[in-house]
Amino acid sequence: MQFNDGIGLKKNQDFKNVYSKGKSYANRLLVIYVLKNKLATNRVGFSVSKKVGNSVVRNRVRRLMKESFRLNCCNIGSGYDIIFIARVAAKDADYASVEKAMKNLFRKASIETGGSKSDEKPSRQAAH
Q1: Helices and strands in the chain: count of H runs, count of E runs
Q2: So what's the pLDDT on residue 110?
Q3: CA-to-CA distance for 104 and 100, rounded, in angstroms?
Q4: 10 Å Cβ neighbour count for 112?
Q5: Which of 17, 37, 64, 72 is most buried, by the most CB atoms less than 10 A from its CB?
Q6: Is the pLDDT of residue 124 over 80?
Q7: Which of 12-16, 27-31, 72-76, 101-105 has the lowest mean pLDDT?
C-alpha cells in the first residue's frame, strides 16, 4: 500500500500503539485514530470489521477509504500515524459520502493543512 505521501501501517504492534496512545475522532461513517510519529511521512492503516458485512462489502468499503485518502493525502500534514476504521453505516455509503466524512475527520483532528480547491464554492457575480 504505497500512497504519494506515506506508507502503510502493517504490524499489529503498530496498530496497538496508535490505538493506545493516539487520539480518536468519529463521525457517522468513520473513526480515525491519530498519533504523531517521528518520521517525515504519514503511515496509514485501514480497518473494516466483520460487522460491516461479508468480504465483498468489507473490501468495497476499504477501497473507498483508500481512494479517498489517496486523493486527499496532500491536504494533511506529515508526521502522523493514522488509522481509519469503518463503521457499519459505511457499507451503504457512496464515494462522495466517505470522502466528505474523511475530510470532516481531518478537520476535527486538526491535521488538515490547506483546503482543496474542490471544497470551495464558486463565487456568484451579479450580471449587469
Answers
A1: 3, 5
A2: 87
A3: 6
A4: 17
A5: 64
A6: no
A7: 72-76
E strand or H helix that includes residue 12: helix 12-21
Strand partners, 31: 26, 85
Alpha carbons 111 and 105: distance in angstroms, whole number? 9
Hey, what CATH topology would domain 6-108 get?
Answer: Ribosomal Protein S5; domain 2 (3.30.230)
Contact between residue 101 and residue 29 where contact means Cβ atoms under 8 Å apart: yes
The amino acid sitting at 94 is D
Query: What average pLDDT score do residues 103-128 get?
Result: 66
pLDDT digits (tens, 9 = 90+) for 51-102: 999 999 999 999 999 999 999 888 888 889 999 999 999 999 999 999 999 9
CA separation, residue 80 to residues 6, 11, 30, 93 (Å): 9, 16, 18, 26
**Is the CB of residue 88 less than 8 Å from the CB of residue 50?**
no
**What proportion of the chain, given as a percentage, has pLDDT over 90?**
62
| Domain residue limits, the chain | 6-108
First CA to last CA across the chain, in angstroms?
53
